[in-house]
């Protein structure tokens, strides 16, 4: 979707394939964000008074609202994103429904109080639990390449934990953001609990800086993500950041080559290569390299590119002409440095799909690439698959790890245990074996990059708990003194050393504890039982 915006104008949505206007929303002024967040903060305390089980019922209603509006959502999101309608259903709507139902069914147990063990030697009668409490207001900043399922699941997790939410969708997903607000409204959430703001990077940074915004969940570009993270850290508030990836795929010699080639093509071309977690780099064992490459090129050439609203079209346009120029720049630079284009490329002029005016780039397969080329190092946001032949598993892992964007990776092999070993060696936040991209079946898992390529996790149990603050709560009987309260005299010192010796793995230490410290332990215990 191409979007025009000024800080006083509307955000305008257009079909990226045809250029047709789809609608517009009012842009939010950065100076107004503080007031919006403050209004959410007024509503949130009443929401937090509800039991988790009661809040969960609203999440199930949201899931039902998506089911009720399934066809309309698929049509609108498909037009706004320039994606096939079936792809929207399978990669956005089904995962959203599943995540919401899971949050409703399991969230109460995940956010319920957790017992913490306390050894008798430290507190004979002490009991401890962890309680999960809301932050207050959580800011959710979404990405254009993840318009619906990801931000909605983040919002639902924040709500279940008792928070209010201020949500800023990406500019090219502004209508998707409005539809998220609509399905939330259909669930009869308290008015003002979730507020929607629109705009560009300045609005996102203003949300992060807002006094009453207590935590931020950001998904988007590295430049804006780092600005948001700096704004949060400067105010000592928590932030979770996902900056995208340069996902790698490792194909071993024993892989099912037809399946691996099909998987690479799907994961590399979903959302025209702009989906979060799209494959960009492929490392293929020498034994199957030629077979894999032939199948990949044949499959890429068979994909129909054009207006995804038409039957049979598999790949839609890129988000903007600017993005098209960036993809062309990286590919052309790689070719100048020795890479070869086996198929694909920009569809311009006479190659432009009929009836379309958007930024189209046909699925492209590159060979002869090296890690000195930017096409292997920078996020691409287009349907370009760069393939390298490798001589060993160690070489494949080393090359796959040679990236600053360790979001996702995949391993393709018939040996499950070998795949699991390799998965542990890959420096990525998520690794899939014989698959790539989290389909509907994995909508309940955590999402995030490896250390150094992002901060924290969203979604899944980890993401759900990350929407709440852990609070340790302990209890001691009112009639007992603390075992280790002072005075720090000889008796207490002997008792402490004796208890330490009792925890030793050596029999001699434990015998020494009873021999030299039993009397001191008895006296310290008697002191604890006194009311003084």
Tally the helices: 16
Q: What about the largest sheet?
A: 7 strands, mixed
Would you tell me the structural class of the helices and strands? alpha/beta
Q: Could you tell me the strand content as a percent range?
A: 15-25%
- Number of extended strands: 18
Low-confidence stretches: 1-8
Can you give the helix content as a percent range?
40-55%
Kindly, what is the distance between the CA atoms of the first and last residues, rounded to a whole number of angstroms? 73 Å
Explain what this protein looks like in three dimensions:
The protein is an alpha/beta fold and 532 residues long. It is built from 16 helices and 18 strands. The strands form four sheets. It has a seven-stranded mixed β-sheet, with helices on both faces. A six-stranded mixed β-sheet has the order 7-6-5-8-9-17, with helices on both faces. A three-stranded antiparallel β-sheet has the order 3-4-18, with no helix packed on it. Helix 2 (52-68) packs across helix 6 (174-186). The protein is globular and about 95 Å long. Mean pLDDT is 92; it is low at 1-8.
């Amino acid at each position: 979707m191409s979007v025009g915006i000024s800080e006083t104008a509307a955000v305008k949505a257009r079909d990226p394939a045809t250029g047709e206007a789809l609608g517009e929303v009012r842009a939010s002024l950065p100076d107004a964000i503080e007031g919006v967040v403050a209004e959410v903060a007024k509503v949130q305390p009443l929401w937090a008074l509800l039991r988790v089980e009661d809040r969960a019922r609203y999440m199930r209603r949201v899931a039902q609202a998506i089911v009720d509006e399934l066809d309309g959502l698929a049509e609108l999101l498909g037009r706004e994103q320039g994606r096939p309608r079936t792809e929207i259903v399978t990669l956005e709507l089904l995962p959203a429904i599943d995540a919401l139902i899971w949050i409703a069914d399991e969230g109460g147990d995940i956010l319920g109080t957790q017992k913490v063990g306390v050894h008798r030697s430290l507190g004979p009668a002490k009991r401890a639990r962890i309680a999960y409490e809301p932050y207050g207001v959580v800011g959710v900043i979404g990405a254009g390449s993840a318009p619906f399922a990801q931000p909605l699941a983040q919002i639902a997790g924040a709500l279940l934990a008792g928070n209010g939410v201020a949500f800023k969708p990406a500019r090219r997903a502004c209508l998707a953001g409005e539809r998220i607000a609509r399905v939330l409204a259909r669930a009869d959430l308290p008015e003002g609990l979730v507020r929607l703001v629109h705009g560009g990077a300045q609005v996102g940074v203003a949300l992060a800086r807002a006094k009453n915004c207590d935590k931020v969940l950001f998904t988007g570009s590295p430049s804006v993500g780092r600005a948001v993270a700096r704004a949060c850290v400067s105010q000592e508030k928590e932030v979770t950041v996902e900056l995208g990836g340069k996902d790698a795929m490792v194909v071993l010699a024993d892989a099912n080559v037809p399946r691996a080639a099909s998987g690479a093509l799907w994961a590399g071309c979903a959302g025209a290569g702009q989906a979060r977690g799209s494959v960009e780099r492929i490392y293929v064992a020498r034994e199957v390299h030629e077979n894999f490459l032939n199948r990949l090129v044949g499959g890429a050439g068979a994909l129909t590119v054009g207006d995804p609203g038409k039957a049979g079209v598999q790949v839609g346009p890129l988000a903007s002409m600017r993005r098209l120029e960036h993809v062309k720049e990286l590919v052309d630079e790689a070719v100048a440095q020795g890479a070869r284009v086996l198929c694909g490329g920009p569809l311009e002029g006479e190659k432009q799909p009929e009836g379309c005016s958007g930024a189209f780039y046909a699925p492209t397969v590159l060979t002869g690439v090296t890690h000195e080329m930017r096409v292997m190092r920078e996020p691409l946001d287009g349907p370009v698959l760069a393939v390298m032949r490798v001589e060993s598993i160690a070489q494949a892992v080393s090359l796959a790890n040679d990236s600053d964007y360790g979001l996702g990776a995949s391993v393709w092999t018939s040996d499950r245990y070998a795949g699991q070993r390799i998965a542990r060696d890959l420096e990525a936040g998520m690794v899939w074996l014989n698959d790539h991209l989290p389909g509907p079946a994995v909508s309940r898992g955590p999402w995030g990059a490896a250390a150094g390529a992002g901060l924290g996790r969203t979604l899944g149990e980890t993401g759900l708990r990350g929407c709440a603050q852990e609070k340790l709560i302990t209890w001691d009987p009112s009639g007992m003194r603390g075992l280790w309260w002072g005075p720090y005299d000889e008796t207490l010192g002997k008792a402490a050393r004796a208890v330490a010796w009792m925890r030793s793995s050596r029999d001699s230490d434990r015998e020494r504890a009873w021999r030299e410290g039993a009397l001191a332990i008895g006296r310290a215990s008697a002191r604890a039982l006194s009311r003084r």
